[in-house]
Design a protein that fits this description.
homodimer, about 350 residues, alpha/beta, 434 Repressor (Amino-terminal Domain), Rossmann fold, DNA-binding
DNA sequence: CTGAAAGCGCTTACAG
DNA sequence: CTGAAAGCGCTTACAG
């Protein structure tokens, strides 16, 4: 009782510290702290009666185990990291919220790690990030999720991860495939059903998996409906507004010009709007436009932009849930992610 | 040596664990671990020679103290929280990056806590957030930063905080004032200098400090230049795209109608664009528009939107630096944050 | 300026 | 099913 000042005061510890320690609960329950520990960790090796008594006490006192003490003993923190190199702020924020939704009430917290995958020491940065705080696991967001070298490092470091990518790249328990291809297929079918035959495609850099998936899905679906895109109708942009303008100017200079353009993200679709307006073309009267991402921009453009939406929040929630799941919980059903087209005002049948 | 398996292997511990423990360093240096601890914590009570030897060893081995062990002993984690209830994703992401920039190399990490300030138990949520992991401190982003009840709770919980708000609400060491008013003044002067006299203002909800500051700054600056805004030229929006459309429709129905409109955020400015186009008015030929926030939207609208930019990244960096600063480091110069107008294509002198 | 002891709040072997 | 001992990797008193 001389060792710990708290012992000298009262059995009920200060509320501010979150409800005492494991020792307080053990003393109150008249058991060893090891037994309390078993209850905390859901060990089956506790008598039902004992367990219930301890659980009631824990609730009553408002006791919450200290994550740092647990982490020290476990050699693993109660932190989940999110690693990303993604210019789409809304994407990041939505995914954070989704992950947090799965983590609520678990005692885990989310720590963020934006990085620059073009710098050659970013992997070392992630390594220190996961190792220093002994992260429980990390969520890998596109496009870093596509980097095999990063994943190799994580495996070697013994850090769990959940990858989010356009198509499965890993074992199911570590992977959330977003099936970007399906969204592009939907766009192809939509434009074709409106009657468009001369269609332009503005892609992103081919090194991105999402670009290849979206592009391939779009072209294949068109082909299935008997539409072939001539090479000059396919231009590679850089996922930026400016590149969207430049690519659209090239496409719209064609004669005859496309009656519809699909851009592989919304940024570039906004660029298409600008190019069209500069040329005196009206969207959608003279040109239909579809984007991808359904970013906040889409609904705010005038006319509002039809775009493909991914359930980003859900993806974040699934990823966190995967990381939190017991290693030995058996095979869990892989979540099926399906993008879908949100049709707005930017498309209509071609004129004439 | 039977106790710790690592002792049995080699003096140089596995690189994967980040470079051994304090005991390894102590043994290698031939000192007690307390002395190593003093070096880690920059205590002056270490002989220069001893210190240098230990520091060299730490670098060589790549030793990094375990934040969980330190946190347990300190009763305080190496985590900084960011608490926000802000619909502007770019704002959040930029601020996160700024905070992280200040934290780089310190061993601290950033843990995020979005919340809903309209729910009545959000303060309890933040309380558990800061208490459970014993956060080192939290960054309070507008608009939760304006909530006195939240700050009271944090004070009572003994959690450090840094508040970011339009105007100082707290002691300088806990406050980053963004001086929103100055940005609005700049807009007023700009529009006046272009020759506008009939000017409309679309505000946000008056309960927000930023709204009041921006609105007051704008009107006062106009008044100083001899322009009074009649009441019907001032309408209250809700910071949403839709409210921008509705407010603009009211303003543009006036006869004579305003030649310029200032909206207190970019979302509503986009709404003004839509309303103008629907009425067949051209921006900027028939109507000049200025927004606030300089969100990604601003540069992507057509014509691109003039808007007030806040140095959000720097604000995040300052906030984190404040939290990391030694309590007894003395009074540090309060950073001066100054918003400024980014003039783009949406304004020109009024016609006629 | 330096160190041995005790402690932070939890868990992992190891016994029973 | 339960517990006493030792340990996770660090720090705070307290001595010297």
């Amino acid at each position: 009782m001389t060792r710990r000042s708290r012992d000298a005061s009262s059995a009920k510890p200060a509320a501010i510290s979150g409800g005492g320690t494991i020792n307080d609960i053990a003393r109150l329950a008249g058991v060893s702290k090891k037994t309390v520990s078993r209850v905390i960790n859901r060990s089956p090796l506790v008598q039902q009666e004992t367990r219930e008594k301890i659980e009631a006490l824990i609730r009553e006192v408002g006791y919450v185990p200290d994550p740092m003490a647990r982490g020290l003993a476990f050699r693993k923190s109660f932190l989940i990291g999110m690693v990303y190199d993604n210019p789409n702020a809304q994407y990041i924020v939505n995914m954070q919220e989704g992950a947090l939704a799965s983590m609520r009430g678990t005692g885990f917290e989310l720590v963020v790690h934006p990085c620059d995958s073009k710098s050659d020491d970013y992997i070392e940065g992630v390594r220190q990030f996961v190792l220093q705080h002994r992260l429980h696991g990390v969520i890998l967001v596109p496009r870093v999720s596509e980097d095999g070298a990063l994943v190799d490092m994580l495996r070697q470091a013994g850090c769990r991860y959940a990858r989010i990518a356009a198509v499965s790249l890993d074992e199911p328990a570590r992977m959330i495939a977003t099936n970007d291809r399906l969204g592009a297929v939907e766009v192809a079918n939509y434009l074709e059903s409106l009657g468009h035959r001369r269609i332009g495609l503005i892609t992103g850099p081919q090194r991105y998996l999402s670009t290849r998936e979206r592009g391939a899905g779009f072209m294949q679906a068109l082909a299935r409906r008997g539409i072939e895109l001539p090479p000059e109708h396919i231009v590679e942009g850089g996922y930026t507004f400016e590149s969207g303008v430049a690519c659209a100017e090239r496409l719209l200079a064609l004669d005859p010009r496309p009656t519809a353009i699909f851009t592989l993200n919304d940024e570039m679709a906004a660029g298409v709007y600008k190019a069209a307006f500069k040329m005196g073309l009206s969207v959608p009267d003279d040109l239909s436009v579809v984007g991808f991402d359904d970013s906040p921009l889409a609904a705010r453009l005038w006319p509002s932009l039809s775009s493909v939406r991914l359930p980003i929040r859900d993806m974040g929630a699934f990823a966190a849930a995967m990381l939190l799941a017991d290693e030995d919980a058996g095979t869990r059903a892989a979540p099926v992610i399906a993008p879908h087209l949100v049709a707005r005002e930017s498309c209509q049948p071609p004129r004439g």
